[in-house]
Amino acid sequence: MKFAILAIAAAIAVALMVLNPRIAFDHSRPVYVVSCRTEWTAHWWGAFGDGGLFGLYSLNSAAQATVANTAGLEYVSANQQLAMAMSTLMKPCR
User: Fold this and answer.
1) Is 77 helix (H, G, I), strand (E, B) or coil?
2) Model pTM?
3) For the sheet containing 29-35, what is the strand order?
């Protein structure tokens, strides 16, 4: 029994080290988890409202969805919008 508990604890520790997860907060509410090494995100930001994200997304897909839901960035090129969104999504990893 002790070995099983130790094996589960070791597997969790290895997964956390490999994924290196960080939680992003908005006004002290968690909005998504980003894996700093694999660049995947788990979003529940606005999941039950209009235009929210819910599920697992690659960083590129989440950034594209963020750009699509952001108004007022017409003066910036599409590549710059995507770079800004990726930078914003990866803030917890800094």
Assistant:
1) coil
2) 0.63
3) 21-26, 29-35, 40-43, 55-58
Q: Of 18, 23, 55, 39, whose CA–CA distance to 87 is shortest?
A: 39
Query: Are 82 and 73 contacting, i.e. CB atoms less than 8 angstroms apart?
Result: no
**CA–CA dist 61, 82 (Å, integer):** 10
Q: Convert the pLDDT of each residue in 66-91 to its tens digit.
A: 777 666 656 667 778 778 888 888 88
- Give 73's contacts (C-beta < 8 A, 6+ positions apart): 67, 81, 84
Could you give the C-alpha distances from 75 to 5, 37, 71, 78, 81, in angstroms and in order? Answer: 55, 32, 11, 9, 10
Copy the structure tokens of residue 33.
């988890």
Identify the DSSP state of 91: G
CA 85 to chain centre: 11
